[in-house]
């Protein structure tokens, strides 16, 4: 096959640099109405009355809709989420009504004129309150909700509970030769702050709804909107222009159903765009979490047993957090060889804005907790943290938490690579001056979220190819670089000769969405399969033209050649023209889904993914200086060794790593969301929510680790999601190293660091996490534990 | 009363009131959608344009105050499709990701480079301190600028 063109320039750069790219917020639609949402001003209330009569009579108003116009519920795992607050308000900012009018000012004025009578109800704002003995229920009717995915325990304010049990942790903790180390951690929320807010334009055309939207998941938008509008999914078409940043925020359906419902009632196109304040108030943030982790470790550093409880705040509706309870097994349960393990991961309802997916969801804080816990273990048993990691990281044939067998030695050699980088450059300790200096090396386990993707490739008579998928370009470049490279490589074309169709659910087949590092892998594999079918057909026709069997032909540089006789063949364009005459135009289709790597039966309960099809590993190292007078943390150096499988666009991956590390630095150091007693998010914009600026950042030293096993096309793995994974871990471990204090919370803002240094902070205490692990569970594990113990006995697979 | 504005060397008339933010006049009336209204509070820099060669936030500037000044937007940087040297190095270094911040960033840097043609790394960082980027982590953009 042809060589892969590396570092292929992205075709969208030029228009983006010229200000010509039209994102959803830039689209002009003739006759479009503007929409506004009326949002709840309290976190919990009974809705006694909503009167829209006055609003409907206001100038320019074309439609007003409320819960009565869309009574359905949607969700992930549990259908708990209505489009509008129905009967009850569950979070501050929850939509209660929507208005479409000729101008935005008219829509906002009419929304403000809707009369709402609310009777305040008790609210649970924190997870401690939600799990307290006399907590009011966010969903008193939880028993009546449709269960979309079986398997997770749920009840009361616990939206979902996923558990892992492998081996006999009870016995491990009771061993005489182990030291037991326990750690508690707490992290806040993180806002994606994607520059383009959530935005949608909906219109009805020929009886179907067309939605143009800023999303990462067009098929989810199609299916959820159709469900809420009570129409067939095929009656909704979703197209996606360039997306101005996603980072997971747009991996779910958001504003689209409101726009669609209004368009249906107004019988005109409707545009709905969140203001920045709305984005802050209702962002599907990375969730706040509370973690208790205990380990039983021998003096040689063998981890005989590990147990943990992870509480994830899903806000008022389950959403992504229900799915993400799965990830604790693979993140907090990742990195290290464990003799036995039990984990409980619980999504907890509170009367706060729903949380969602954010780049390396769940992984960032669980890696922070795991790596800080690891350093506390090292301190307790007196072992060097690097030595501990070298001895314990997962390697070839080792068992993961759910009993999957990992292939290949990856983390160990990556630690060696990092040691090489460290040896090659001088320490920046001198730059710390009078400040406290610290350094840390952390490891992380993440994955590629594989799953269904579809692709079609049309070979055109001019020798170009058109790739049709439902993939979205959100900025990472996968659709602009990786996909055309893969198709071009398969067909012997130049990547610039592969046209990539923007996402359109009427054209491309089903796709899970762009996120989870899956674009190059899943869409790439589907595209490669489609291109392979084109290749077969192309060679068949060429075989007749050149009087040579297909296996004697090669494809490269836009030409078919007889092997070993360059210049004797024909251009691909000529073959395509001939094909059109003989058999009709050449097209191919391809599809892909995860193969489903096996976990150990009986280990995981309530999980959406029992084992990782494509694990991805990362090693991060940093040096920090902590100012003892102000608590300010300066990052002096940062280095990353990342498992990429194979790098098709090293430059673009460097960009992803520098950007992902920077987002991680914000998370670790100063991006803070606080929630007031009224349940509202206090940070309303860029002024109060502090993201990294140019002067906060250092150049990241990067080494791409290639060659680890991957089922991705050409050996690739997703490279865009994982860079943020262990940044908070590395920074927190380095700050602990610098200060000699126990870092248990993020972000490490100057006041929090000062508190640590002055010993003024109260130690963390989680009365809502039971000391005995079993006591935390809604569903006792008796049966599962028996099976788990049996499986981990002499008959267990693996080492 | 109509506002007479000079945008990218061209005299334009706006029907908006003098208090309308300049960014809305540029985008909604003149269809110059490069400048992005991302925060509308003057913190993110995505709507930066040059006003008599000085970078200003178009979201905070009432259009009436731009009367009589030369307004330059990102659309002016490559008038005939030929990228400016600054745009070229951004393309060559493969630093563009979602792209929403670039129009503002390019205008801040254009204004800065006009008065500081040979900047140090720290000076470039300082010049970018009013332009937030959520994707790139800045450093590779700065590398691109320093290659000029």
Automatic annotation (TrEMBL), chain A:
One of its GO terms (molecular function) is iron ion binding. Signal peptide: none annotated. InterPro entries: Ald_Oxase/Xan_DH_a/b (IPR000674), Ald_Oxase/Xan_DH_a/b_sf (IPR036856), Ald_Oxase/xanthine_DH-like (IPR016208), AldOxase/xan_DH_MoCoBD1 (IPR008274), AldOxase/xan_DH_MoCoBD2 (IPR046867), AldOxase/xan_DH_Mopterin-bd_sf (IPR037165). Residues 18-122 form the Aldehyde oxidase/xanthine dehydrogenase a/b hammerhead domain. This is Aldehyde oxidase. It comes from Chelatococcus reniformis. The lineage of its organism: Bacteria, Pseudomonadati, Pseudomonadota, Alphaproteobacteria, Hyphomicrobiales.
UniProtKB/TrEMBL annotation, chain B:
One of its GO terms (molecular function) is metal ion binding. The keyword Iron applies. Residues 1-77 form the 2Fe-2S ferredoxin-type domain. Keywords: 2Fe-2S, Iron, Iron-sulfur, Metal-binding, Oxidoreductase. PROSITE patterns: 2FE2S_FER_1, 2FE2S_FER_2. InterPro entries: 2Fe-2S-bd, 2Fe-2S-bd_dom_sf, 2Fe-2S_ferredoxin-like_sf, 2Fe-2S_ferredoxin-type, 2Fe2S_fd_BS, Beta-grasp_dom_sf, Diverse_Oxidoreductases. This is (2Fe-2S)-binding protein.
């Amino acid at each position: 096959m042809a060589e892969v063109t590396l570092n292929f320039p992205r075709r969208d750069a030029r228009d983006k640099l010229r200000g010509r790219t039209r994102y959803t917020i830039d689209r002009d639609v003739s006759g479009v109405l503007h929409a506004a949402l009326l949002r709840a001003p309290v976190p919990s209330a009974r809705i006694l009355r909503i009167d829209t009569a006055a609003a409907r009579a206001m100038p320019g108003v074309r439609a007003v809709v409320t819960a009565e116009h869309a009574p359905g519920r949607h969700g992930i795992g549990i259908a708990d989420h209505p489009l509008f607050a129905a009967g009850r308000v569950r979070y501050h900012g929850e939509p209660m009504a929507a208005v479409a009018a000729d101008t935005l000012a008219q829509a906002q004025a009419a929304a403000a004129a809707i009369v709402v009578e609310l009777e305040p109800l008790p609210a649970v704002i924190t997870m401690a309150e939600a799990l307290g003995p006399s907590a009011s229920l966010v969903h008193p009717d939880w028993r009546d909700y449709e269960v979309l995915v079986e398997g997770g325990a749920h009840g009361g304010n616990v939206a979902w509970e996923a558990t892992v049990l492998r081996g006999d942790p009870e016995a491990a903790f009771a061993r005489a030769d182990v030291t037991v180390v326990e750690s508690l951690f707490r992290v806040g929320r993180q806002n994606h702050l994607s520059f383009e807010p959530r935005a949608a334009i909906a219109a009805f055309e020929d009886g179907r709804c067309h939605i143009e939207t800023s999303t990462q998941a067009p098929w989810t938008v199609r299916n959820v909107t159709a469900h809420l509008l009570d129409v067939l999914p095929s009656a909704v078409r979703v197209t996606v222009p360039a997306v101005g940043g996603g980072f997971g925020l747009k991996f779910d359906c958001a504003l689209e159903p409101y726009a669609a419902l209004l368009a249906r009632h107004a019988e005109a196109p409707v545009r709905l765009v969140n203001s920045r304040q709305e984005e802050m108030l209702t962002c599907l943030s990375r969730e706040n979490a509370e973690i208790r982790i205990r380990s039983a470790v021998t003096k040689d550093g063998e981890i005989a047993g590990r147990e943990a409880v992870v509480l994830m705040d899903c806000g008022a509706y389950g959403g992504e957090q229900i799915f993400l309870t799965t990830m604790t097994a693979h993140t907090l349960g990742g990195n290290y060889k464990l003799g036995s393990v039990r984990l409980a991961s619980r999504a907890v309802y509170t009367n706060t804005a729903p949380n969602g997916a954010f780049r390396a969801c769940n992984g960032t804080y669980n890696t922070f907790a795991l790596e800080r816990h690891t350093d506390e273990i090292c301190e307790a048993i007196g072992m060097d943290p690097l030595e501990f990691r070298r001895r314990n990281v997962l390697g070839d044939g080792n068992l993961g938490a759910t009993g999957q067998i990992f292939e290949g030695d990856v983390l160990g050699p990556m630690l060696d690579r990092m040691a090489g980088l460290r040896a090659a450059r001088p320490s920046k300790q001198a730059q710390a001056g009078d400040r406290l200096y610290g350094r840390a090396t952390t490891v992380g386990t993440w994955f590629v979220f594989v799953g269904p993707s579809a692709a079609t490739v049309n070979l055109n008579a001019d020798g170009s190819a058109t790739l049709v998928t439902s993939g979205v370009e959100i900025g990472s470049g996968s659709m602009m670089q990786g996909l055309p490279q893969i198709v071009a490589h398969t067909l012997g074309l130049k990547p610039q000769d592969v046209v990539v169709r923007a996402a359109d659910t009427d054209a491309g087949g089903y796709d899970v969405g762009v996120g989870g590092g899956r674009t190059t892998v899943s869409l790439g594999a589907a595209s490669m399969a489609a291109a392979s079918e084109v290749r077969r057909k192309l060679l068949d026709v060429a075989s007749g033209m050149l009087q040579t069997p297909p296996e004697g032909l090669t494809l490269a540089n836009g030409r078919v050649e007889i092997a070993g006789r360059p210049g004797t063949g024909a251009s691909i364009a000529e073959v395509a023209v001939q094909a059109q005459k003989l058999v009709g135009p050449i097209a191919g289709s391809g599809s892909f889904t995860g193969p489903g790597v096996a976990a150990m039966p009986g280990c995981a309960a309530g999980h959406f993914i029992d084992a990782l099809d494509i694990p991805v590993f990362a090693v991060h190292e940093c040096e920090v200086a902590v100012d003892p007078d102000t608590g300010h943390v300066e990052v002096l150096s940062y280095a990353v060794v990342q498992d990429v499988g194979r790098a098709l666009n090293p430059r673009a991956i460097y960009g992803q790593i520098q950007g992902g590390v920077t987002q991680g630095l914000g998370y670790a150091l100063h991006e803070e969301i606080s929630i007031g007693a009224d349940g509202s998010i206090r940070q309303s914009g860029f002024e109060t929510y502090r993201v990294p600026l140019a002067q906060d950042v250092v150049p990241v030293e990067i080494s791409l680790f290639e060659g680890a096993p991957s089922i991705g096309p050409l050996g690739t793995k997703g490279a865009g999601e994982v860079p943020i994974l262990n940044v908070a871990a590395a920074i927190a471990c380095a700050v602990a190293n610098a200060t000699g204090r126990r870092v248990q919370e993020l972000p490490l803002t100057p006041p929090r660091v000062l508190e640590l240094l002055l010993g003024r902070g109260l130690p963390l205490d989680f009365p809502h996490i039971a000391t005995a692990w079993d006591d935390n569970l809604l569903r006792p594990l008796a049966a599962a534990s028996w099976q788990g113990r049996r499986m981990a006995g002499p008959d267990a697979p693996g080492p | 009363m109509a506002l007479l504005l000079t945008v990218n060397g061209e005299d334009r008339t706006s029907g908006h009131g003098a208090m309308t933010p300049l960014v809305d006049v540029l985008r909604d009336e003149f269809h110059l959608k490069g400048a992005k209204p991302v925060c509308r509070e003057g913190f993110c820099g995505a709507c930066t344009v040059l006003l008599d060669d000085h970078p200003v936030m178009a979201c905070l500037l009432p259009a009436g105050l731009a009367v009589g000044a030369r307004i330059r937007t990102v659309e002016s940087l490559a008038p005939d499709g030929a990228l400016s040297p600054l745009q070229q190095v951004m393309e060559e270094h493969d630093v563009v990701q979602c792209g929403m911040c670039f129009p503002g960033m390019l205008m801040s840097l254009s204004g800065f480079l006009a008065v500081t043609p040979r900047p140090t790394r720290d000076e470039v960082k300082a010049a970018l301190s009013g332009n937030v980027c959520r994707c790139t982590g800045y450093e590779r953009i700065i590398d691109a600028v320093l290659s000029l």
